[in-house]
Specification:
The complex is a heterodimer. Chain A is α+β, with helices and mostly antiparallel strands. Chain A has two domains: 53 residues, no CATH class; 151 residues, OB fold (Dihydrolipoamide Acetyltransferase, E2P). Helix content of chain A is 21%, strand content 31%. Chain A contains six helices and ten strands. A five-stranded mixed beta sheet of chain A has the order 8-1-2-10-9. A five-stranded mixed beta sheet of chain A has the order 3-6-7-5-4. The N and C termini of chain A lie far apart (85 Å). The longest helix of chain B has 7 residues. In chain B, strands 1, 2, 3, 4, 5, 6, 7, 8 and 9 form a nine-stranded mixed beta sheet that branches. Chain B contains two helices and nine strands; from the N terminus they run E-E-E-E-E-H-E-E-E-E-H. The N and C termini of chain B lie far apart (37 Å). Chain B has a single domain, classed as OB fold (Dihydrolipoamide Acetyltransferase, E2P) (Beta Barrel), CATH 2.40.50.180. The chains are: A alpha+beta, B mainly beta. Chains A and B meet through helix 3 and helix 4 of A and strand 4 and strand 7 of B.
Chain lengths: 224, 152
């Protein structure tokens, strides 16, 4: 004979008028032994046939190993391209700042230097370095979009800044969702990309920070 | 240490949670004709055949009831030669856990040679709980039958 369940949680418990004296001890009904005992009674029923079949198949199936490793990616936009870089590789994001041109260093992707909290940081065109077509987001006359920011990356003790059109912030992505770079990508970006992922319906190229830093070192070699 | 609580009729028993691989519902087993006492059958566990012992049949002489609260507890079992196996245990009212120190269990003064797998007892607010010793669940003859490499 099955015991009747008294649903005290609906009358004097958290779903009722909160008058139960045990709430002082257990705070919520789900911590209370009375609630646990009711759950035991509620589950004391015969096994449905389809339940047994389904679980028999489930238990027999090989365990699926899910890779729960996650990586944190800082995503940003350059024109129409959404790019990502491992969060560990960048140092900070700042407002757009005035870029002071360096005489005779206009070529090679170097835009000039910017003042980041008192420190002069070389500012480069990421577009030019990784080879994306399109105009520089930092229009030199200062008419940058309202979402425009500057990303500062750090390798060793050398910092480099580059302007971007928009920063989407850091996002946790599952390592399993990182795809290989399609061989058909003609874009020169592919050389700097070590994975692609889909984020908010967009394909994001995850930049390889080591290749990027190597390229920066080559470009800035004589300036460093 | 954490223990998983189960029931044999009215009394409660505890299994060392550290030895538990997984707890699954009571699923369909492949029967073993002329199986030794207490052996319920073979479970296809993730593609590996695992022998399953019915604790109710073993201790009470009746099979476990087919209820939602009756479950198969898969445990690590070390045979008498030290080889590791997974063993399934069917138990009723697998519902809760108990956290207590291993030395809180006390011998209760009866040496029941027929149930070497039932160990010392501990008391909580609802009464006594007896520990199930996984290592002593299978007599040598049953071990040789379930794990044939032992017989060689």
């Amino acid at each position: 004979m099955k015991k009747a369940i008294v649903d005290c949680w609906n009358t004097i418990g958290v779903r009722g008028d909160l008058s139960c004296p045990k709430l002082a001890q257990y705070t919520r009904c789900r911590n209370c032994p009375t609630y646990v005992a009711a759950a035991v009674v509620a589950r004391d029923v015969a096994l449905p046939d389809d339940y047994v079949d389904e679980w028999t198949r489930h238990v027999a199936a090989p365990a699926v190993e899910i890779d729960h490793t996650r990586v944190s990616v800082m995503m940003f936009r350059l024109g129409t391209d959404v790019l990502g870089i491992l969060t560990g590789a960048f140092k900070e994001i700042t407002e757009r700042r005035t870029v002071h041109a360096i005489p005779h260093r206009g070529a090679g992707g170097v835009l000039g230097v910017v003042n980041v909290r008192g420190e002069l940081v070389v500012c480069v065109s990421l577009r030019e370095i990784i080879g994306i077509a399109g105009g520089e987001p930092a229009a030199r006359d200062g008419h940058a979009g309202e979402h425009a920011r500057m990303i500062v990356v750090e390798r060793g003790h050398a910092r480099t800044a580059f302007p971007v059109d928009e920063v989407y912030g850091t996002h946790d992505v599952r390592a399993a969702d990182l795809g290989t770079v399609p061989m058909t990508i003609a874009n020169a970006t592919a050389a700097f990309t070590n994975a692609v992922l889909t984020w908010r319906g967009k394909t994001v190229a995850l930049l390889d920070e080591h290749l990027l830093f190597d390229a920066l070192d080559r470009r800035l070699g004589s300036a460093a | 240490m954490l223990y998983l609580l189960l029931a044999l009729d009215a009394d409660r028993y505890a299994l060392n949670a550290g030895a538990i691989v997984e707890v699954v519902p009571l699923v369909a087993l492949k029967a073993i004709p002329q199986a030794p006492h207490g052996v319920a059958g073979i479970l296809n566990y993730r593609g590996t055949p695992v022998p399953v012992l019915d604790l109710c049949a073993l201790a009470l002489g009746r099979p476990a009831r087919s209820r939602l609260t009756t479950r198969i507890v898969l445990v690590d079992y070390t045979d008498r030669r030290g080889a590791a196996h997974v063993l399934g245990l069917i138990a009723e009212r697998v519902e809760g856990t108990l956290r207590c120190e291993p030395d809180a269990f006390r011998a209760y003064g009866i040496d029941n040679a027929g149930t070497p797998y039932l160990g010392p007892v501990v008391e909580d607010a609802q009464g006594l709980i007896q520990r199930v010793e996984i290592a002593h669940l299978l007599p040598d003859a049953v071990q040789r039958m379930l794990f044939p490499e032992l017989a060689a």
